[in-house]
From TrEMBL:
InterPro entries: FAD-dep_OxRdtase, FAD/NAD-bd_sf
Cellular component terms per the entry's GO annotation: cytoplasm
One Pfam assignment: DAO
Name of the molecule in the record: Glycine/D-amino acid oxidase
Record GO terms (molecular function): oxidoreductase activity
Record's keyword terms, sorted: Oxidoreductase
Domain of life from the UniProt record: Bacteria
Chain ranges of the FAD dependent oxidoreductase domain: 15-374
Amino acid sequence: MPIPKYTPPARRAYDIVIVGGAVVGSSTAYWLSQKLGDGASVLVVERDSTYEFSSTALSTSAIRQQYSNPINVRISQFGIQFINGFAERMAPFYPNEPAPDLGFREHGYLYCVSPEGVAAARERVELQRSLGAHTVFLEPGPLKDRFPWLNVEDLGGGAWGAREEGWFDSMGLLNGLRRAARASGIEYIDNAVVGMDMKGNRVTAVRLSTGEVVDCGIVVNAAGPRAQQVAGMAGLSIPVAPFKRYSFVFASETPIPGRMPNVIDLSGTFVRPEGELFLTGNTPLDDGPADYDDFSARHEEFEDRIWPALWHRIPAFDALRVRQSWTGHYEYNMLDHNGIVGFHPEVSNFMFANGFSGHGLQQSPAVGRGVAELIVDGGFQTLDLTPFRYERIPANEPFMEEAVI
């Protein structure tokens, strides 16, 4: 196959340069295109346009409303609206073919709750319901009645989101956003930002791996797990690093009857159906920052930790066979597991959209819209994402989220 000819940037200067073209960067590009039309020049620089190792492509592609912070609940509620209306929203950009259906599987989430965690879980459910979520708390008896295949002997109950939670097509979302952005005048190039030129308290240009220097008015850091690498080019620092997550698809000799939700075990292991197969993963014991290019697998994670947890929680999982596995990266915010969204207070044209700690895919519609509002309108116009502001990082004031997987 011939190597595609490299296409350099069409301009020497852009009003906005977005570093990273996966789902957060492309959502930002899409919302900017809708707000600006052709009134500004926008360049998206993506280091790998195949997205083979992007967090978007390697995500487990789920969305939930079961969070402990109201803003995270509302972000997901908008995400659900966006997913459900995606085909209609994208239709103008697919004039000769059907717009993408993201295949949303509304199976819900089921959080297993320990006896000691019941009071806190009930508080979270009450908060979520006050915001319009459909979460319910089930005590062990009703939980067993609803999901007879579940071992509830060591549980105090379960928090179940029966509606507006589930999983969907991550690449369908990304490809639709990219297509809409490009059709609206946003330029994408397959390249890498390797440096930045500064003048005073502003970034004046980005330097590309192919040698070009591109002047810019605003830089948006949407580099996912490489967020700190990009921030460092402007002399900045954020506590964001790639953390490895191992995913396994397996077959079970015993089927699970009924509509199985995404089950989150006390151990942190999750499992959900994928057709006749099942998808599972966990937080590994050796959790910590990884090399940017380290996607090596750890197959013993399944044998040593995941399978015992699955078998304990769902006894029907006594005979399993792994069919497929992969390793992805969380862009993990080591301060508080929440995103960092907003301009830097001193490097005034450097925008953060980073650190979503495994929630970036589901939060991308709202985050991209919020970033576009900050750039175009000077402030948030829809959801107030101020709790995610950068200023909490140097102040060491975490905005904690209890419901982290």
